[in-house]
Write a structure and sequence with these properties.
There is one protein chain. By secondary structure, the chain is an alpha+beta fold. Among the domains are: about 130 residues, FAD/NAD(P)-binding domain; about 90 residues, no CATH class. About 30% of the residues lie in helices and about 25% in strands. It has 8 helices and 17 strands. Keywords: Oxidoreductase. This is Glycine/D-amino acid oxidase-like deaminating enzyme. Pfam families: DAO (PF01266).
Length: about 350
């Protein structure tokens, strides 16, 4: 968000209640997908074909723009373009996936449907079907976020950590922000892009919190060669997702639960880790063994699987982005583009797609 406003003649201050890059960025598995949690053909039934098509195309475009940004800034963050393998599961079977692949193709997003035989032959996975698509990516999330922050600071952005915003009010053509240190900050615009953590006055009843679990294997794990070019997830609820890293680890995540407190329960992580290890082995034959790292985190979701991006209720100079679901990095790029345009006095053509509804 800060980088998107750089070089526009603005004074920009970024505030983090922790120290920068110590929050959800460090917990991300950095599967940067153009595929969103709600399939295109289902989303079309909810918000209409025209808007659903624009959402999916915007998501694909955001990943491509992020690739260009990382390349142009010269950030060394293990950024890698990847294909995505979306497997059939409890939510979508072979016929639904075939329909989904066709829906994507019709709006200009390349998608190859694979039947059971093709899936088994190419990837050794025994499911009724899958969609193979390009456009996605992966990275080291801490290195990527740090690199973008450093680029923003070189252009004059100020970054302050360990300072928490406690209240926000509009006053005429300005916004007044109160902090936990008793200070007041005055700005022309304020943007809350704080993931799933919000002031009470900015909470939205449609924004719910989920808990998730993830793990990383030891490096140089024995794995199929094709995995190094793919992100893999499935059409189940909860769904399993996994990828490899540049040092040969396999990162696995899933077993999501409703509620913001579940991930804080220390008794759950051992069980969740064991389930993820077993699911990966059953699906791929990969023997992960004892993970090097296991962790848990919270994330925000909405009923239709789309983020909420716009002005806070009753305010015109305070912007909010929330509800990124499993597409935090991709949706963050979209939010940065939409909100930065609004701050600069322009309306992005896709502003209507992600309202605070």
């Amino acid at each position: 968000m800060a980088h998107s406003l750089c070089g526009k003649g603005l004074r920009i201050l970024t505030i983090d209640r922790r120290h920068p890059v110590r929050g959800s960025s460090a917990a991300s598995t950095a599967m940067i997908q153009h595929e969103i949690d709600v399939p295109l053909h289902r989303l079309a039934r909810t918000i209409g074909h025209e808007k659903a098509s624009r959402v999916w195309r915007r998501s694909a475009g955001a990943v491509e723009e992020l690739k260009s940004l990382i390349r142009d800034l010269g950030i060394n963050c293990e950024f890698q373009s990847r294909h995505t393998l979306f497997l059939s599961g409890q939510e979508l079977g072979a016929r639904a996936l075939k329909r989904e692949a066709q829906a994507r193709q019709e709006v200009g997003i390349l998608a190859e449907y694979l039947d059971r035989a093709a899936l088994l032959e190419r990837y050794g996975i025994n499911r009724s079907g899958a969609i193979n698509s390009a456009i996605s990516a992966s990275s080291n999330p801490v290195q990527m976020t740090t690199g973008i922050f450093r680029a923003a600071r070189r252009q004059g952005v100020e970054v302050v950590g360990g300072l928490e915003v406690t209240d926000v009010r509009e006053a005429g053509d300005n916004v007044i922000v109160a902090t936990d240190q008793g200070k007041m900050i005055e700005a022309a615009h304020v943007v809350f892009c704080s993931g799933y953590e919000f002031l009470e006055c900015l909470r939205n009843p449609r924004h719910k919190l989920m808990s998730t679990w993830a793990l990383a294997s030891k490096p140089r794990l024995n794995r199929p060669d094709w995995l190094d070019k793919y992100l893999v997830w499935e059409a189940s609820d909860p769904y399993l997702y996994f990828r490899s890293t540049s040092d040969g680890r396999v990162i696995v995540g899933g077993e999501d639960e409703k509620g913001e407190a579940a991930y804080l329960d220390p008794t759950k992580i051992e069980h969740k880790t064991a389930v993820l290890v077993e699911k990966l082995a059953d699906l791929t034959g990969i023997s992960l063994g004892k993970p090097d790292f296991s962790w848990s985190a919270a994330f925000g979701v909405t009923p239709d699987g789309l983020p909420m991006i716009g002005t806070a209720p009753g305010m015109s100079r305070v912007f909010v982005s929330m509800g990124f679901g499993g597409n935090g990095i991709t949706f963050a790029k979209i939010a940065a583009d939409l909100i930065s345009a609004a701050v600069l006095g322009h309306e992005d053509v896709d502003w209507d797609l992600f309202p605070l509804r």
